[in-house]
Design goal:
58% of the residues lie in helices and 2% in strands. It is mostly helical.
């Protein structure tokens, strides 16, 4: 019964996410990950330059790019999907590379919801309410948009949730998943260490198995780093922790454009829910784990030079902690309250324009068209900046995405009432926008799906 119920939750979440499926690449960063996957297939090497001949989304230049600075774990997950897409292209003449590879994130989103359901049942929530709570979180939080964008944070979140469930009974497997999370993103080692230290009921019995289980993933990460940078401890990412702690904390918690409470309104209930569950000894380890993830994420990424994680929908660096904290909310008696229902509805309204018009659409328009805002007092014009989108409500992703959606649905009649839309010159036309759902985009196969194999580089 348990496996069948979990499969039903997975299937329900998957059906919802497939209804909003975009079927195309979104992130410029992912162009490098896909290129690495193709290099691994064709030349068993790390040289991605031949696969970046065309510009990245948003007009980013690829000149001089030889190695990607991102983790190898995500690229490896794309390898079988690229192989399958090439086989389909050969026999049918249709390229489905984008849709097939983006399905990875749709399935990951549904799997994350199913794992949430299992966590809630473990915390004593009745199975029907657990299933409802997990699915509601999946469509009323930042997780909804991450079912259709290709970011490693969502994959890491799923791996960490699975690690939580396996840490006691299957510590080796928990460690193996944790190690792979580190191969996807090096910073995932924080979530893996915290999970391994806090979650097991018998830490002395489990810690060694978890630690040894992480070894393959850690070795994979170290080897891929050495092949690219000459050091097992760095991937070549040169940016550091230069942001003001207080600016980052304010941005992650309360800003108009990146607040985790804005993009996942159910998080508003987390402090009270955590306090309620803490009163019950059986839940304390669970609550402690989520507090540790949230505190570590806030303190770490508030200082990161790009604390907001742009380009992204909401604060992507906080996705792991957000999903864990929302599990606490759903495990409390708030799940059956009007507060939960009201905030879930608000969350759905926040997510709706992002998943309909595209989570990155408002950001990409700013990048590509360079709109100018007009100061209401001086009437001077100046570019819209990242700071504007992070802190100014007029240019927040949420308000901008709603403006774009209403502009599209009204066939342009609502343009004059939007400071965001009025900033563009030339003006945006409704035909420039599309509803980003059920886009499979099959197209005739061309040889640009992947160049001929190239010689392996020296490293």
């Amino acid at each position: 019964m348990g496996l069948k119920r979990t499969a039903m939750v997975f299937g329900g979440a998957l059906a919802i996410y497939l209804a909003f499926f975009g079927g195309h690449y979104v992130s410029g960063d992912n162009a490098e990950r896909i290129a690495w996957a193709k290099a691994l297939i064709d030349c068993h090497c790390n040289n991605i330059a031949p696969y970046l001949a065309r510009n990245l989304p948003g007009g980013q230049s690829t000149a001089g790019v030889v190695y990607t600075k991102y983790g190898i774990g995500e690229s490896i997950l794309h390898v079988p999907l690229i192989v399958l897409a090439r086989w389909i292209a050969r026999i049918s003449g249709i390229s489905l590379e984008g849709p097939l590879n983006m399905l990875l994130y749709t399935f990951n989103g549904a799997l994350g919801v199913a794992l949430l359901d299992l966590i809630l049942v473990r915390q004593g929530v009745r199975w029907r309410m657990a299933a409802l709570g997990a699915i509601v979180i999946g469509v009323s939080s930042v997780w909804f948009a991450y079912s259709k964008v290709e970011y490693g944070e969502a994959i890491v979140a799923t791996l960490v949730l699975a690690m939580y469930l396996l840490a006691d009974d299957h510590p080796w497997l928990a460690g193996l998943l944790g190690g792979y999370a580190v191969a996807v993103r090096m910073d995932a080692i924080i979530w893996v260490v915290l999970t391994g230290l806090i979650v097991p009921r018998n830490w002395k019995k489990s810690w060694l198995a978890i630690a040894l289980g992480t070894a393959p993933g850690l070795l994979l990460m170290a080897a891929s780093n050495y092949a690219r940078s000459g050091s097992p401890l760095t991937s070549g990412y040169e940016h550091g922790f230069t942001n003001s702690l207080f600016v980052g904390l304010y941005g992650l918690l309360f800003s108009a454009g990146k607040s985790l409470f804005l993009f996942s309104p159910l998080m508003i209930l987390y402090p009270a829910a955590a306090r309620k569950l803490w009163r019950e000894p059986a839940h304390r380890r669970f609550v402690t784990w989520t507090i540790a993830l949230l505190a570590a994420g806030l303190l770490l990424y508030a200082r990161w030079w790009d604390w907001s994680g742009d380009d992204a929908w909401g604060p992507r660096f906080m996705v792991v902690a957000t999903m864990a904290c929302l599990a606490v909310v759903a495990a409390s008696d708030y799940l059956d309250s009007r507060w939960f229902a009201a905030l879930a509805i608000v969350g759905m309204l926040v997510e709706l324009p992002g998943v309909l018009i595209g989570p990155h659409q408002s950001l990409m328009l700013v990048h590509l068209r360079h709109p100018l805002k007009i100061d209401a007092d001086t009437h001077e014009r100046s570019p819209i900046t990242f700071s504007d989108m992070e802190f100014d409500p007029r240019y927040s992703q949420v308000t901008a995405s709603w403006n774009l959606l209403l502009f599209k649905l009204s066939d342009g009649r609502l343009e004059a009432s939007s400071s965001y839309l009025a900033a563009f010159e030339p003006r945006i036309h409704p035909a420039d926008l599309a509803i980003d759902i059920l886009w499979l985009h099959p197209r005739p196969h061309r040889e640009t799906v992947g160049p001929a194999p190239v010689a392996a580089p020296a490293h």
